[in-house]
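Researcher: Re-running this chain for the archive, since the previous output was lost when a drive failed. Same request as before.
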Amino acid sequence: MDILNKIDKRWWAHLLFWATYMLVYTGVHSDGDDGWWYYLKIEAMNLPGAMITAYVNAYVLFTHLYARKKYLSYIISAVLLLFVASLLNRVLSEWVWEPLLLPDSTHLDAIFVWYLLLKGMLWFLSPVLLFTLLMRIIQQSFYQEQQQQELAQEKLRAELNYLKAQVQPHFLFNTLNNLYSLTLHQSPGAPVVVLKLSELMSYMLYDAQSPGISLQKEIAHIQNYIQLEQLRYGNRLEVSLNVSGDTAAVSIAPLLLIPFVENAFKHGVSNETDLVWVTIDLKVKEGWLQAKIENSHTTDTITPTGERSGIGLRNIIRRLELLYPHGHELQQYREPGRYIVDLKIKLQA
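Model: Regenerated structure tokens:
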């Protein structure tokens, strides 16, 4: 049915084009005393040559010559096309149309009247040739622009999928390291870790495959991760997660926040032996998500800002650039005793 609908639409478009052609040309050429109906007949006589000019030019000459930049061959072929179409119109007019449509005012003339042939080429047919050429140029330009956009979108999707595929193994690797550490010490918290890991994997395998996800689910994912880290570090770790604003009505690209949270534990907690802390503040305000992630650190346990980003952070920065090119702000900086990530993302309802 879709194919039939497309065919019907094309037929109607062609009929509308030629009806418009007849009306416009009749209006332009009806400058005599014979009346509008007479000139409509004249245009009808010239219609076969115009149709041949239009379709041969649009679907043969343009496709095989002009589009391939064979401009000289196109010009020569176009002139020949105009001549053949004008000659056809002369034959049909003298032998068919005038005896049929104008029997009282016609008489048989020679076919090869060069003035009439040239008039047909230049006055009647060349505007049709130029118009169809212009239409095909516009159509090709639009098609090429559409193709470039599709290729750019496909490239973007491929790059995002690649980056996401890197984030997930990176996250799983860190979590398995945590589980290994607990089982190595025969910790009773190991079964809980397995359960939480199962929930995390379910999120990454199913929920995170969609382009956008509820912010609440992303926060629940972060909470599961925090619980794993609390089981690992015990009483020497203090974690604060503060959420404000309406998180139910907005969505976010999945796995955007977790690399920053991971990094806070990796660089601010794992190398410390004293009491450590991580603070995560998430706020939805005026269409923006404001995420501020802070962790304690000492000078000896953190590298300079530019060197801090591993695979996870490099990927997430790239994903932010692709997904929110004009809708995010990211700052990472140090202050005495703490490291701060300040991220703002323009949300979509």
